Amino acid sequence: MRSMNIIKNISNLNTLLSTKVVIILSVAVLFLTTSCNKFLDVRPEGELPEKQLLTDANGFEAALFGVYGSMNSRSLYGENLSHNATEVLAQYFVCPGNNNAVNLGAYNYGFSSVESLFQDVWSKSYSSIAYANNVLKNLERFSPQNLEHYNLYKGEALGLRAFLHFDLVRLFCENIQLNPTASGIPYSTDFALKAPKFSRLDTVYNYIINDLLEAETLLKDDEQYFTFPKSNPSHSFSESKRNPL
Amino acid sequence: MEALRGGSQDLNADVAGFLNLNYLFRNRYYFDGVYQISGSSKFGANNRYSHFWSAGLGWNLHNEEFLKNDWLDIFKLRVSTGYTGKVSFAPYQALTTYRYNIDLNYLNGIGAIPITIGNPDLRWERTMNYNAGADISILKRRINLSADVYLRKTTDLVIDKTIPPSAGATIGKDNLGEIENKGIEIKLDGYVIQGKEWNWQLGTIITHNRNKILRISNALQAINDRNNALNTLSPLPQFQEGESTTALKVVRSAGIDPATGKEVFIKLNGDRTFVFDPADKVVVGDLQPKVLGTFYSVLSYRRFTAATYFRFFYDQYIYNTTLASKVEGSNPMFNADYRVFESRWKKPGDIALYRNIADQSFPYQTTRFVQKENTLTLSRFNLSYELGQQWLKKIRANKASVGVSMNDIFRLSTVQIERGTDYLFSRGFDLNLNIIF
User: Fold this and answer.
1) Do residues B53 and B33 touch, judged by C-beta distance below 8 A?
2) Number of A:B CB contacts under 8 A?
3) What's the DSSP call for residue B165?
4) Which fold has domain A54-237?
5) CA gap B270, B247 in Å, rounded
6) Which tops the pLDDT comparison, B6 or A216?
7) The complex's ipTM?
8) pTM of the prediction?
């Protein structure tokens, strides 16, 4: 489509540089770089580049559902961090004969399945954090004036980011009250193929607190949409405004 | 709750425009030039379009006065150079793309997450080509020769790079690799007999190619380390800068110790040891043959045609998995290769090719199982008969032929190895009937 095929048999070298050829060439190049951009913007259904998805309420809410949905996985709060690994670590839950549970309960972190469990918690938590970061990154293109619920989306994403980091700190770091200068975890605020640097434990806590404080201010209107406690909210922000509870 | 359905789809678009110039001077010298601009939907908007070009020069020596004669038909010398490009990744790897997934349903909405972290700076893989060649045809085109040498240098090779998981992903795509390919290609064919009833054509295509990795990424280094540590049946690929992508790396072996029946390994510094260490692996050869070719003969008499196709390769190193799994790795209590009894070490003083017969552990990857292979195969033979006019009229066809074909008829090789263990090996025989209406 729209490809140009210009075959010229020129018997004289002088005409090679004639203006005609130059014009045809430049028109072809111009044509390609302008009108074909739209043609090249094709995507399979169910897949959308971020700049197309994150333009309205539906898109931002789908992306936030994505963060919550990914936290629902068995690696995180769907199993390990809700009723399994953390319970075993706390000695509330024992399972004699199960190598994984026995070694986890004995804090044998070098045991291969225990090691891979925590690798999974670490990498899946940072994936979810990265998803929240990308929501924040795309929100920078908007403001509360041109995107309804801007503050709520930003507040939720900041809150999620702080929450996930907080749980990682609790799992992987020393007790801050005993050793505030201990080494902490990387605090991720970007969505890029580059890993964030490790910070000191008290610095990580400062980041968490700052994000939580900002989220608290941004989410002050939350109560208009949901009745507290949020026992089983069944509507998203944009829908609850249309059909108030 | 309503059942949710999932699915997937793949879609991308490419556009290209090109300009082609040909210039011929007095039928002797010619110039070709191609300029191309290509765009692909797989890239981020940053590097969507790429520019490619090629240029060639040729000299028709057969049109020169000093070479004009009866027997020379074509004598052409040509050189060319240019850039070509390729896209070798999925669209979402360049442009961060959200995908809806039914597993991400939350409250009453379906969530979408980025498939991976896109790299908006991904560029086209570009290959710089240099080619020089000659075409010669003599005796009314009865004998034709065409020879080419080339050098291809691929830069910006799109390969995986590993990143710490705290970035939110563990693997990203980047333009990190560089590979160089060098080779020779020769085509020669000629009619031994050219007549009204009998025709016999012989021809061959011979190629030689060598590649070298100029630059790789840290992800490949991690794969190397993992592959190196595993003692699999045959050595896994190792990618090292300065070496071939198909280099065969194993530990050098000094053979079987006659006193103990154990294998003696040679370390990198030349020391002898009984302890195997994968770090002592060295390049002992290349899995790609030095020379690879085909050879064919087409003999025809009136309406009968007999075509024979041979394939050959010369100087190829292989790791003989039959020796590693069926001779040394096998248990002599069960059905085993005769070499288990004849060639393995049994008592002190035996000079044996293979380890102690009592040792049933998995053998290590050493030079004992590396062999140099030269092979000739008769890959296909076809005999056919073309039907005459009176038959064609009856079936109202334009052209029709019947024939028989046989595949993989014989194989001469310097190496004995089991075939058909990974994929079914078959010796085929088929009857064919071709009709063109």
Assistant:
1) yes
2) 203
3) G
4) 1.25.40
5) 21
6) A216
7) 0.76
8) 0.66
